[in-house]
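Field log, afternoon session.

UNIT: design team B
ACTIVITY: writing a sequence onto a fixed backbone
BACKBONE:
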């Protein structure tokens, strides 16, 4: 019985030597090697394009394994060969199409452009340019710009790549390019301090700026009328350590020449409240007030002291899915997910800031952030609305008491303020010492006493390295710190003066008491002024005494 079944099947098998023909074995091994190479490439490439690595490697591996098993067990060699091609081939094609959509045109594979690049390998200059996208740029249209073929345009695009890479690597938050004379002056703002970069020759700078404006969705030929645009830039190998920034571009003519201003907004600038720099006691007292869905919280500071960042962090502390949150701002610093952001337009002078704010209040939002207290009417509206809902208000002032004074003057109704106000935050931004190159020293005991800091002689203070402390190489050249690029500082944090409106302070405000009396009561309640919280950062090794004194000095 068994023989009657097996004999016909064995008769259908190819003649001996036909399946294991040397040529067919070579083809089998060659295609197996191609699969192995493709699988190893996808294993690395999926990380670079920031896709799901385990998913893609498992897909390619499973497809190839099914194809190989089918090839080996199907008795007809050509049928097994086709099974292999129609399992492994489509899986590889799906990955190639997916990854090509996530990279710039100069980085696509298995496309006509890729084949053209392979055929043009004899042109070393072209290959070198295409091989070094130092910054992966995505324009305002959401597309990756292609490298120009014209030599002059090539050079200008390369200059733009170098400029953006340098700005991102140095952690610049702002960049200015001034086109005047024979050279273009370039300035960065790093950790709040302006630093000069080597100038760029004017002809090259003109082409570089034209590329920047074109990619950002602006008119490259317009040099007088103000324009705005944006793009994104990413540096890194394609993994989790990549640095990605949104570049917001403004161009306008000035008496000195054509000027380009770029604000570089990195993901790490999107702080939460617990990341702002508040001390533990400040956070413990302020946190419950932020969680409340009623009351006014004022954030104040001098120009470029981080007020907007703190307001945004307070807004992010609320659930934007469960609450109806709106902001009203003179200029939007960055996007906040699931929050309705209104930018004041004025409508040719027909609508005031307070009138636009009033129209927002009429929609009955749960939480409103007002970025700038533009006038008296704005202050009154915020104080009145905060009796039932939550309002965050930004005011330009040197500290919390100065902010309270300005609020009282604008509103003109101390009882209304006493009802609605919950807290006033005064703040500044200080640079943090680079932990890689900071130098420790023993503080003076008299200084600790004056600063009201613990007399712990075993705890060192830190400062940036002096010039004579910088290490040099064998040729005598200074070894620049790779973390802070030799500045001695890396990043910034906030120092705060948190005035909590307790019941005694609320009574003083309602009675129209002087700021001196209010401050005396706040000090009784353990309020720490800006210099004290700054010196606490020094004591903790976060910053230096000179930096705190620089930032907290009266303007």
């Amino acid at each position: 019985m068994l023989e009657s079944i097996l004999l016909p099947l064995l008769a259908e098998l190819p003649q001996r030597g036909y399946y294991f023909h040397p040529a067919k074995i070579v083809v089998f091994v060659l295609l197996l090697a191609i699969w192995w190479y493709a699988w190893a490439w996808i294993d690395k490439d999926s990380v670079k394009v920031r896709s799901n690595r385990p998913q893609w490697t498992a897909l390619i591996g499973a497809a190839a394994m099914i194809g190989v098993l089918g090839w080996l067990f199907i008795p007809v060699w050509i049928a097994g060969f086709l099974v292999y091609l129609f399992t492994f081939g489509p899986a590889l094609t799906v990955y190639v199409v997916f990854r090509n959509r996530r990279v710039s045109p100069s980085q696509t594979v298995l496309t006509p452009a890729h084949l053209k690049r392979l055929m043009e390998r004899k042109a070393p200059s072209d290959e070198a340019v295409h091989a070094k996208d130092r910054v992966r740029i995505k324009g305002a249209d959401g597309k990756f710009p292609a490298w120009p073929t014209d030599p002059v345009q090539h050079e200008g695009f390369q200059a733009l790549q170098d400029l953006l890479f340098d700005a991102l690597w140095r952690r610049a938050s702002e960049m200015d390019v001034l086109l005047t004379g024979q050279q273009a002056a370039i300035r960065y703002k790093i950790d709040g301090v302006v630093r000069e970069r080597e100038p760029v020759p004017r002809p090259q700078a003109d082409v570089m700026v034209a590329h920047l404006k074109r990619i950002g969705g602006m008119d490259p030929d317009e040099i007088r009328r103000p324009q705005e645009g944006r793009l994104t830039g990413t540096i890194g190998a394609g993994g989790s350590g990549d640095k990605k920034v949104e570049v917001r571009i403004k161009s306008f003519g000035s008496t000195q020449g054509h000027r380009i201003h770029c604000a570089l907004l990195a993901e790490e600038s999107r702080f939460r409240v617990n990341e702002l720099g508040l001390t533990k006691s400040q956070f413990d007292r302020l946190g419950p007030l932020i969680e409340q869905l009623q009351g006014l919280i004022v954030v104040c500071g001098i120009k470029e002291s981080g007020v907007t960042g703190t307001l945004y962090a307070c807004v992010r502390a609320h659930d934007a899915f469960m609450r109806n949150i709106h902001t009203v701002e003179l200029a939007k610093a960055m996007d906040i997910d699931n929050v309705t952001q209104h930018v004041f337009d004025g409508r040719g002078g027909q609508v005031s800031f307070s009138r636009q704010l009033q129209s927002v209040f009429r929609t009955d939002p749960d939480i409103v952030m007002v970025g700038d207290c533009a006038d008296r009417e704005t202050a009154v509206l915020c104080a009145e609305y905060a009796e039932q809902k939550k309002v965050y208000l930004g005011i330009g002032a040197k500290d919390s008491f100065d902010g309270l004074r300005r609020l009282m003057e604008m509103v003109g109704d101390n009882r209304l303020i006493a009802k609605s106000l919950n807290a006033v935050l005064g703040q500044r931004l200080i640079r943090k010492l680079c932990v890689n190159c900071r130098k420790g020293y023993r503080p003076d005991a008299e200084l600790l006493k004056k600063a009201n800091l613990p007399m712990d002689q075993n705890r060192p203070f830190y400062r940036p390295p002096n010039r004579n402390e910088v290490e040099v190489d064998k040729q005598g050249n200074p070894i620049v710190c790779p973390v802070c690029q030799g500045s001695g500082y890396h990043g910034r944090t906030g120092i705060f003066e948190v005035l909590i409106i307790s019941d005694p302070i609320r009574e003083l405000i309602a009675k129209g008491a002087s700021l001196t009396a209010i401050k005396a009561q706040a000090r009784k309640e353990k309020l720490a002024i800006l210099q004290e919280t700054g010196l606490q950062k020094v004591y903790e090794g976060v910053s230096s005494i000179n930096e705190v004194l620089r930032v907290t000095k009266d303007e």
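LOG NOTE: The chain has three domains: 13-100, 133-268, 273-431+492-539.
NEXT ACTIVITY: expression trials, pending approval
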